[in-house]
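Troubleshooting log. The previous structure file for this entry was overwritten by mistake, so regenerating from the original sequence record. Sequence copied from the archived sheet and checked twice against the printout by T.R.
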Amino acid sequence: MEAVIFNRLQILINKTYYATKRYKVPATFALLYHEDPLTHDELGSFLRISDHFIQIDDNHYFLNFSHTNQEDAFKAAKNVLFGIDKHFNNQKSYIAIDTYDITKNPKIVYSRLEQILIETKKHSYTRIEDEDVLNELI
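Regenerated output below.
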């Protein structure tokens, strides 16, 4: 990942942690993989107005489901996938969701999301997974 993109990711994660500490606002981080090109505007049309995202590369977006606990983030992720599936007319997109923990530094957050995404693409039929998919490997 480019240094500029990682810096933006750190800022977004740290701002989210601040909101959690200060205002007790929940959030959930996710990583979206899509096979075909997806513009900012296209992805934005599938997200809620309160959500934030950063493009990592041509096939990945980091998602911040703001004001959303993990259970509700699954529902939001399903809606995102539904929109992307309909847009591309395929089911080749995946979303990894990790447990929100303000003690994790941004590098760990992203690394765990990458690991979850890899396992989701290999083994999952749901196309949306959380850290439980990593526990299945043990």
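Strands lie at 27-33, 52-57, 60-66, 94-97, 128-129. Archived copy saved in two places this time.
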